[in-house]
Model the fold of this input.
Amino acid sequence: MIDVNALLSLSELHLAGRVEKMNTDRLNEYGRSLDAFIERFSVQETKVKAALETGDYETANRCLMTIQNDLERIYADELAAECQSLMDVLKRADHDQAQADTVTLLTRVAVLSIDIQMAEYNSAKSKDNPAEAMDAPPVEKQEAAQEEAADEPTEPTVAPPPEPTVNVLAVDNAAIYLQRLDAFFQGTRFDFTGVTSGDDALRFLRDATPDLILLDIEMPHMNGYELAQKIRERGHKAPIIFITANSKRESVIKAFQAGGIDFIIKPTTKEYVLSRIGKHI
Done:
């Protein structure tokens, strides 16, 4: 069962003032609602996309209603409201814009699904290996440290040094997606290298030690899971973030077992990519 602090860290879930009032039985029930959302979402997402491709907006609406109901049960209030708005639009004529908006919403819901799974995975890992969990200092010690710092003489303000360059390796068999990522990193502190196969990545890693590695999962010859395992076997410690359009639980677990620490969900935007990788550098 995911712990309360992990739940409160998920910004899409509006749990403040709610989860604190849950007893053990209610927390367990809420955990089951989270699991049901994760399992149903990947199925409904596939159905929505297929229905939009064929112009079957009635089926798309039914699937969106299922997603909305699950979002309401887990208190993802804003996403649930956006689901309702999309269903209203799909009943009218502006289908082209609704399709684009639906894909955007599904991406956000997929991110939430994976974030919940990550929180569950890390909670379970912390319980199995308490030494790996980072303990925050007691509140009294934090307050004492703050008071001590406040009593120290103030030194002249010095401009912070420039942020160091971060070397990023991305692997995706779609060259056009690598070009898109390269454009995202232009003008930032990230030095980007993109290759289109696992073999090319392993050759690059013979002489290079990137600070961050982005791996597509669905690649021919050597998929992202296999490549991640080979990277770890060769001693590379850089954080691995998987790039995927798949939020299924089995895929998420395989990614963690292969050495990944996070996910970027396709389709992507510059702001989303930079925000996601910024947590790990």
Q: What stands out?
A: The radius of gyration is 22 Å. The mean pLDDT is 86.
